[in-house]
Amino acid sequence: MKQIILNPGIFLTVAASAVVYFLLAINLSKSRRVRAFLHISFTAITLIAIPGTDIFPINRLHPKWLIFPSLNTMILLAIYASVAIIVNSRFKHLLGEFLSLLSKDIFLGFLMVFLLFSGSWSAVPEISFRYSVGLVFASALAAHIGRTYSWKQLSVFLRFGNAFVAFFGLLFSIFIPSIGVNEKGWKGLLIHPNILAAFLALTIAIWFLDAIQNPRDRKLSIPIILGLFFVLIKTNSTGGLLVTAILLSLVSVMSFFKKFFKSVPFRPAFAGFVVFIVASLIISLLAFENIETVFAAFGKDLTFTGRADFWAQIIGYVQEKPLLGYGHRGFWLEPGGPASFVRTNSGFRPVEAHNGFLELTLDLGITGLILFLLSFGRSTYLAFRFALQSSSLDGLIPLLIMIFLMSSNTVESRLLTVDYIWFYYILSAAKLNTNSLHTS
Fold first, then answer.
1. Average model confidence (pLDDT) for the chain?
2. What is the model's pLDDT at position 222?
3. Range scoring the smallest mean pLDDT among 61-65, 243-247, 331-335
4. What is the pLDDT of residue 335?
5. Membrane spanning segments where (predicted)?
């Protein structure tokens, strides 16, 4: 009996049923406070789950489960539907909020439409369509969260939610290494040390921002930052350290020279910031290209080696379908397709391009890449303007997310995926397009 009860499928079914009945009971109470609490709880759990936190039952609440039909999908849909019904005053505008974002950011709007139709030229149309629909749903949810909460509130969600994931993962890495550690280093509750390292880079930057803004809270923020740095080092990810350095540099420059930037005409100030972005991208690529020479003395386990081998091969396949690409996920998931011939000199066979911009070009061609870059450029422009106009340093968070997306996607594929980086991007874009500085 105990084994039956603890079976994940049965447990989830029973738990979901209990949750649904509990939520319906709450709905009958018509309590605004209870509804607000439920929405906050749902948001917190979603933001904890979205990085791919691999601990039951949080790992069963990730939107990725909506891509393929399963028992977990049905349960997840029931939970989403129940929450939406109960807090309908907040969720009833979800679709409208997302469409509003797509109408304001027309490049993102065209990209989403292009994504949904990419299955028509994919070798695996059904799979492409499912992945596309899952991504659109996750994007709509991100847009809703972005428009619902202020940046101050979102900062709290991100700081404490991400710290929870990091430190809970630390416990697993120390006490249950079979789960929290792989051959490269610590991975905590995430899928790989490199993924954890990138996640920690953004988390450290947001906590660093809080330490600057709230000196009285440094007794909490500084120990947390040091703890996060400890976990980051244990991931053995040089890329994570590099992204952390870029983000902390951005926070330092924008925090301490904000008055100077305000005194300069906006266009020259933004042009200077664009130079910073380009320089960061070039430094990232050059650093990874020469990473073995620079860090060999430290005995680092570096995973960049070999990427250049298959990047050249992938670019060759991009040239075969330059305008439209292979359809969303079509290149990698086609049985016996061209991806089966992509290998490094050592024989390693990748399952992704390990570069978000190259991955996007594989999926949607040059057309999709241009649409995304135009959307990204527009959002970065709005984020920079918002950072200068906001009275709070929390206004720097969307700018941090833009730089984080760019730098982390130089060596990992995290664009157009049901992943926390894309989720944060849509969340930021939705917030920036509300044009309401008072919510900073």
1. 81
2. 95
3. 61-65
4. 80
5. 6-24, 36-53, 65-87, 99-121, 127-145, 157-179, 191-212, 224-257, 269-288, 357-376
- Which amino acid belongs to residue 276? F
At residue 298 the predicted structure's pLDDT band, cuts being 50, 70 and 90, is very low
User: So where are the chain's domains?
Assistant: 1-92, 93-440
What is the C-alpha to C-alpha distance for residues 404 and 158, in angstroms, rounded to an integer?
Answer: 14
SS (H, E, C) the chain: CHHHHHCHHHHHHHHHHHHHHHHHHHHHHCCHHHHHHHHHHHHHHHHHHCCCCCCCCHHHHCHHHHCCCCHHHHHHHHHHHHHHHHCHHHHCCHHHHHHHHHHHCHHHHHHHHHHHHHHHHCCCHHHHHHHHHHHHHHHHHHHHHHHHCCHHHHHHHHHHHHHHHHHHHHHHHHHCHHHHECCCCECCCCCCHHHHHHHHHHHHHHHHHHHHHCHHHHHHHHHHHHHHHHHHHHCCCHHHHHHHHHHHHHHHHHHHCHHHHHHCCHHHHHHHHHHHHHHHHHHHHHHHHCHHHHHHHHCCCCCCCCHHHHHHHHHHHHHHCCCCCCCCCHHHHCCCCHHHHCCCCCCCCCCCCCCHHHHHHHHHHHHHHHHHHHHHHHHHHHHHHHHHHCCCHHHHHHHHHHHHHHHHCCCCCCCCCCCHHHHHHHHHHHHHCCCCHHHC
pTM of the model as a whole: 0.85
Is the per-residue pLDDT at 129 higher than 70?
Answer: yes
